[in-house]
Amino acid sequence: MELTMFFAASHPASHPAFARSSNNAQSLRTLHHLLDEKRSSGYRVTQDEHAYSLQFDVPGIAKEQLSIGIEGSIVRIESQPDAPRTYKAAYELPQDIDVSASDARLENGVLTLKLAKKAPVSNVSNLTIN
Description:
By secondary structure, the protein is mainly beta. It has a single domain (4-117), classed as Immunoglobulin-like (Sandwich), CATH 2.60.40. Helices cover 11% and strands 41% of the residues. The chain contains one helix and eight strands; from the N terminus they run E-H-E-E-E-E-E-E-E. It has one helix spanning 24-37, and strands at residues 4-6, 43-47, 51-57, 66-71, 74-79, 86-92, 97-107, 110-117. The strands form two sheets. Strands 1-6-5-4 form a four-stranded mixed beta sheet, with no helix packed on it. Strand 4 (66-71) and strand 5 form a beta hairpin. The termini are far apart. Mean pLDDT is 78; it is low at 1-22.
């Protein structure tokens, strides 16, 4: 028997917490509201000014049976076909992730991701007044 567990909606971008917004503070408030509602669903998310911390309950899965992909602000977690359970999740965070400064650990059936926030790049150019 195969057990499939989805941590997020199949189309997370449809939830307001995952919408890209020019008002990043509003996006973060919405994300926090969503996360407060979902604490009992097998995952937890916290953040500080430098990083997001995501924790997922994945009992019975070895680290070799999980893959984590990060592209910009999107995080994908998926179990391998040989895993005893199927896990699949995708999240879009309000800010891009710095993969080189991030970390993943699996201890006692809990996958913990420390995802460093990438510093925003400003494309502002100054125009000289003549």
